[in-house]
Amino acid sequence: MSASGGTRAIVAALGANLAIAVSKFVAFAFSGSSSMLAEGVHSLADSGNQFLLLIGGKKAQREATPQHPFGYGRERYIYAFLVSIVLFSVGGMFAIYEGYEKINHPHQVEHWYWPVGVLLFAIIAEGFSFRTAIKESNELRGKLSWSQFIRRAKAPELPVVLLEDFGALIGLVLALLGVGLALLTGDGVWDGIGTVCIGVLLVLIALVLAAETKSLLLGEAAGVEEVKKIEAAIVDGDTVTGIIHMRTLHLGPEELLVAAKIAVQHDDTAAEVAKAINAAEARIRTAVPIARVIYLEPDIYSEAEAAKGPNPEATPGGPNPHPADH
């Protein structure tokens, strides 16, 4: 996932949310609608989230240091996780609290044209932002479904923006329903119910984001297709005859660590092995350009060691029983 694509989607979402937040707070001031207040806080939280994503992207570009020899690529994961926390606490929990208060102490929505007009404007603006995020994501999604794309994406920005914009559009519809029912029935409780529904929606989205970014923070392996390309690039059939076992790890969205124990011929010289390793590293980087940190350890494949068991840590000379499962 390119950083430029993610940045375009973030900037589009930021501009839309700032404009929408201002309009919602104005509508709340004139109408007293709790749905408008909850939606205003939601848009303000979303704007803060986009700032967090931009900061994370900037910090991740720092050069590696002796203290952090693998760089700062995971900064993007950390800030994406913070986004889920902000969305849960500031957006979701505030909306649920505000809705609960409005249900217990309802009052009629005043100057109905303010919230309705602002909600219609917000739907258009959020739709533009959502369209931009979809367009940028389609360039990278390939044949994956949307749920698969969100689960498997190694760069967090586009999935975060997609879920935020999707949640915002659904929330706006809920707010419009709440305000509309409050106007039709004259009962402000409907406005509070709409607000609670918005809060529950935001909490659910925040939990999904937290689960996905937590997985990235813990460290995810390369995708299945990338693993296959790396395995094919390592073996040359001459000096490197096979892969005993291999591990991959994303150091950041666009930086991959590859560590493998490779099988070489027992009568190869050290110079031949070193030359083969250098050639294998070059092939890996050609096949998967984001594989920037590569460690290849030569070993002699042993049928006797392999027969001791399937655990490659317990039997260092044995093969990985699931070569595509890393």
Secondary structure topology:
Elements: H1 3-31, H2 34-59, H3 75-104, H4 113-141, H5 146-152, H6 157-185, H7 189-218, H8 224-234, E1 240-252, E2 255-264, H9 270-287, E3 291-299, H10 303-306
Parallel strand pairs: 2-3
Antiparallel strand pairs: 1-2
Overview of this protein structure:
Helices cover 65% and strands 10% of the residues. The chain is mainly alpha-helical. Helix 1 packs antiparallel against helix 2 and helix 2 runs antiparallel to helix 6. The longest helix is centred in the first third of the chain and has 30 residues, at 75-104. It is elongated, with a radius of gyration of 26 Å. The chain starts with a helix and ends in a 20-residue tail after the last helix.
Describe what is shown at a glance:
The protein has 326 residues and is mainly alpha-helical. It contains ten helices and three strands. The protein has a three-stranded mixed sheet with strand order 1-2-3.
Which outline best applies? Answer: elongated
Distance between the termini: 20 Å
Uncertain residue segments: 1-5, 314-326
* Count of DSSP-assigned helices: 10
Structural class: mainly alpha
- Number of E-type strands: 3
Query: Residue-averaged pLDDT, rounded?
Result: 84
Strand content: 5-15%
Features:
single chain, 326 residues, mainly alpha, 3 strands, elongated, disordered C terminus
